[in-house]
Amino acid sequence: MINLGLDTAKGGDAQGDHFDGIENLIGSDFADTLTGDGAANQLDGGMGDDVLSGGDGDDTLIGGAGADQLVGGNGTDIALYGNSTAAVVIDLAAGTASGGHASGDTFSGVENIIGSDFADRLTGNGDANLLSGGAGNDRLLGGGGNDVLIGGAGADRIDGGAGHDRTSYAASSAGITVNLSNGTGMGGDAEGDVLIDIESVEGSTFADRLTGTIGDDILNGAEGDDVLNGSDGDDALIGAAGADQMIGGNGNDTAFYDASNAGVTINLATGIATGGHATGDVLTDVENLSGSLFADQLTGDVLANVLSGGDGDDVLDGGAGDDAVIGGAGADRLTGGAGTDRAIYATSNAAVTINLATGAAAGGHATGDLLISIESLEGSAFADRLTGDAGANTLSGNGGDDIIAGNGGDDILSGGTGADRIDGGIGVDLVLYTASASAVTVDLRSGGVITGGDATGDTLINIESVGGSAFNDRLTGDTGDNALIGDAGDDILSGNEGADYLDGGDGFDTADYSAETSNLTIDLLSGLGQGGTAENDQLISIEAVVGGAGADLLRGSIGDDSLSGQAGNDRLEGRAGADTLIGGSGADRFVYTDSTDSTRTAADIIQDFSRSEGDRIDLSGIDALPGTTGDQAFTFLGASAFTGAGGEVRAIIQNGQTLILADLDGDRVADMQITLADVASALSASDFIL
User: Fold this and answer.
1) Quick one: what percent of the chain has pLDDT higher than 70?
2) Residue by residue, what is the 3-state secondary structure of 436-472?
3) Contact 581/608 with Cβ under 8 angstroms?
4) pLDDT band at 9, cuts 50/70/90?
5) Which Pfam families match (predicted)?
6) Are strands 510-512 and 544-546 parallel, antiparallel or unpaired?
7) Which residues lie closer than 8 Å to 21 by C-beta, 6 or more apart?
8) Does residue 22 surpass a pLDDT of 80?
9) Which residues of 526-548 are buried (b: 16+ CB within 10 A; e: fewer)?
10) Backbone angles phi, psi at 411, to 5 degrees
11) Rounded to an integer, what distance in angstroms lies between the CA atom of residue 542 and that of residue 493?
């Protein structure tokens, strides 16, 4: 019994031994108990029924013959059966094993298995497992998690299961042909293989042919003159050394040269590549490039390309299309070309200062960069200074206390987290808080409150429009023409003066005119506002309106709306849907023009009906007897039952509220229903316009 962590040993030749700087143990032919420490240990039990405990660290456990207990502990641990005299069957999910040296073994905290040279059956669990079958016709099942499955020599059945799973043929002694779309393998270690639910393939050091599926695949040819065909999906193609043919197929595909031993020169428009691992490569239907650690020259085509230079002094040219260029470390020349192009510094190790008007850049990964025909910038996680040009720019600060200046043009500006200073400059400029992790409150008026989520600490200058978060935002405009866009969440939008554009987005959103004293007309169906601060307002995806102190006319849409008149003698018309109507103070009129405006299954609720203030329910716009000639008025019955004559209205008190019921067709069943909340007194005909 040996414990490296406690420096103790008992039994046999180990009795009284002490250990210093020892990482690995080989036991006896008897029943040993071997325990590792915090390092990466290799524990070999030999023969006998052993107990192997890796402890912390990434450990290797070799039970050998006998019924062994293998306890990986913390870290990523592996159990080896390479010396087994027969095939092994191991199920990490069940923790059981049989066959060969695995007979009677149990597992706990073991993530990876290397099998024998025979026909093994290896099954993973919900973790990210490495299962290596070795020689023999093996069956590998990854289960859940992002697994690595290596069949080795032999006709293997390789099933990744759930997750993004990879198979590797790096040790194959000959080139392979693997087609993930039909699950077949040929040549070298792939001969006779069947592949199921595999999303990533690593080839051999020879000439391989790898074909992907309709999904997002990773094809790594390794060395050799490989043919990589991504097929459909957004694929990653890695040719490595050799003259490779890289065919992206449909989807948005990327060729990677991160491991190249020298700079690469690639032109997506011509498909020609030279230098380093790109020498002799031909690229077809590839949209994006990731360069090496050296000085690369990457050129896009007419499509929207993503060009990433990596380290080194790179020259990136997007060509036509709306491109994204990422210079990385080094003094890079970034040319967007035609289209609306973006330079990204999200991975910079320090703050960047970039001016699109001059093309100059400094700090972090921007040091020494020159930007040409770039319209958009994405900064770092630090305190950046981003300045636009005379055109329409999109500037995003990401993290840090950024200073963002749009300059001329209609700009889209986003500070991200941090206390940012955002100046739109000339033009109609939009500040976005769509990525905020909580609700924001933004008031564009001088001295207005700006707080909450990503807006906390921000200073906004010359900003005309605001885009909110996915939460319950409150956005307020100034005296100009503002666009307030709520995005998701139950937002409150107040345009104030000017012809404003109020778009609530998803959620139950409110247009708030409570500060207005003039008479307003707001129609949610047409999306138009008139009068006072509502004049020429456009309302999109707004479900609720709060009026002002004047005599307002508020009309709903065909959905479930909330209309609140506030003070003044207001006129509220909910239209179809189960609406909530709040007249507020004053003699308010609740108007119905169609029997479908408030039904038994979608009944309106009038929250504050007041007889003393002169509130009235207006049914005069409805023909009480639609089957007869003319436009008849309703007959009010009080609390009495319907007579069957049709065109009748009754009001009954039920559970502390009043239900107004209308029968149009004379079947003694209510066709309309309106609820007066908290009204428990009898109504009279004078409460209606019939």
Assistant:
1) 100
2) CCCCCEEECCCCCCEECHHHCCCEEECCCEEECCCCC
3) no
4) confident
5) HemolysinCabind
6) parallel
7) none
8) yes
9) ebbbebbbbbebbbebbbbbbbb
10) -100, 155
11) 9
- Amino acid identity, position 347: T
Question: Are 69 and 48 within 8 A, CB to CB?
Answer: no
Cα–Cα distances in angstroms (integers) from residue 490 to residues 32, 191, 456, 466, 470, in the given order: 65, 59, 20, 16, 9
Q: Is 639 left (phi over 0), alpha (psi -120 to 50) or beta?
A: alpha
Contact in structure between 210 and 226 (CB atoms under 8 Å)? yes
Stretch 67-76: mean pLDDT, rounded?
Answer: 93
Residue 427 gets which letter from DSSP? S
- What is the Cα Rg of the chain in Å? 36
Q: Which two tokens stand for residue 208?
A: 């391989």
Long-range contacts of 350-355 (CB under 8 A, 24+ apart): 350/380, 350/382, 351/379, 351/380, 351/382, 351/383, 351/384, 351/385, 351/400, 352/379, 352/380, 352/382, 352/384, 352/385, 352/386, 353/384, 353/385, 353/386, 354/379, 354/384, 354/385, 354/386, 354/387, 355/387
Q: Which string of DSSP letters, residue by residue, matches 267-282?
A: ETTTTEEESGGGTT-E
pLDDT band per the 50, 70, 90 thresholds, residue 5:
confident
CB neighbours of residue 19 within 10 Å = 17
Give the tens place of pLDDT for each residue, 178-215: 999 999 999 999 999 999 999 999 999 999 999 999 99
Q: Whole-angstrom distance between the N-terminal and C-terminal Cα of the chain?
A: 97
Encoded amino acid at 126, one letter: G
Structure tokens, 106: 């149990």
pLDDT at 622: 97
- What mean pLDDT is reported for the chain? 96
Q: What is the pLDDT of residue 509?
A: 99
The sign of the CA dihedral 346, 351, 357, 360 is negative
The pair phi, psi for residue 70, each rounded to 5°, is -110, 115
**Tokens encoding 686:** 């004078």
pLDDT band at 381 (very low <50, low <70, confident <90, very high): very high
CA 228, CA 180: separation in Å to the nearest integer?
12
Tokens (6 digits) for 144: 């859940």
Cβ neighbors of 597 (< 8 A, separation 6 or more) are 573, 574, 575, 576, 604, 672
Q: Distance between alpha carbon 365 and the CA centroid of its chain, in Å?
A: 26
